[in-house]
Write a structure and sequence with these properties.
Largest sheet: 5 strands, mixed
Structural class: alpha/beta
Number of strands: 12
Strand content: 25-35%
Strand order of the largest sheet: 2-1-3-12-4
Distance between the termini: 46 Å
Number of helices: 10
Radius of gyration: 20 Å
Length: 250
């Protein structure tokens, strides 16, 4: 049975942990929304720190950071922009790493719409195909690579519906505004279980690897919560969450 001394000691430890707890402002690529929500909860439970997360397309988040946005850690959907931030002196040198490798899926909520080989792109009867904006979203750029590799650019161009980011792209398909679309594999889970519908897991040789890099930004260099988050993203606990959402572990 705990003594009064033990209870007092536990209270002191808990109070100290709360006193040392901080907050980190994080910019996160839209495709990583669901796993980041889990990671942020686990991070707070483990460290006491809170992650204040903003989601969006990698290109727009990068532009915000370059123009003085308040972020301290950036989780991109590509490797290029974190590298640019490091080169530009906005990211901390040596604090850039791959946290996940994304996978592209052609998906429809309709059970028989998408065949396992993706032949529907050439033969299917559909009006709209959703992709993320290839200028700002790496998953959109990957989708365009697949369409080009299949020689379907001219045929599919009139049917393309471009989402601002991969989250909006998924919404277009999920709500039926587009019959099918290229989405991130990570978006096809709910409560840890795969969503229904039909899908083509796009072979990875049809698009460049979607290596998703994170970088500690100069604004977070002196913030213990920011450096703690960077460390936590490399932990087995975080990597297990990442893998559970269909990403390949780096």
């Amino acid at each position: 049975m705990p003594t009064r001394h033990h209870l007092a000691l536990a209270l002191c430890i808990a109070t100290g942990s709360l006193a040392n707890a901080g907050e980190v402002s994080v910019a996160v690529a839209a495709n990583f929304t669901a796993p980041m929500q889990e990671i942020a909860a686990a991070f707070e439970q483990t460290t006491g720190h809170q992650a204040k997360v903003s989601y969006g397309s990698t290109g727009k988040l990068y532009a915000q950071i370059v123009h003085g946005g308040p972020y301290e850690v950036f989780l991109a959907a590509d490797a290029d922009r974190p590298e640019k931030l490091e080169t530009e002196g906005i990211g901390v040198s040596g604090q850039r790493f791959t946290y996940a490798i994304g996978r592209l899926v052609l998906w429809s909520p309709e059970p028989d719409r998408v065949d396992p080989a993706g032949a529907v792109l050439a033969t299917g009867d559909f009006r709209h195909l959703a992709i993320a904006n290839p200028k700002t979203a790496p998953y959109g750029a990957a989708a365009m690579e697949v369409i080009a590799a299949k020689g379907l650019g001219a045929r599919l161009e009139p049917r393309l519906v471009r989402g601002e980011n991969i989250s909006q792209t998924w919404q277009f398909v999920a709500t039926g505004n587009a019959e099918l679309g290229f989405v991130a594999a990570s978006q096809l889970f709910k409560d840890g279980k795969p969503l229904g519908g039909s899908r083509w897991d796009v072979p990875t040789d049809l698009y460049p690897p979607i290596r998703q890099d994170a970088v500690l930004l100069k604004k977070g260099e002196a913030n213990p919560a920011a450096t703690a988050l960077v460390d936590f993203l490399r932990s087995d606990a975080a990597l297990d969450i990442i893998k559970s959402y269909g990403y390949a572990r780096p």
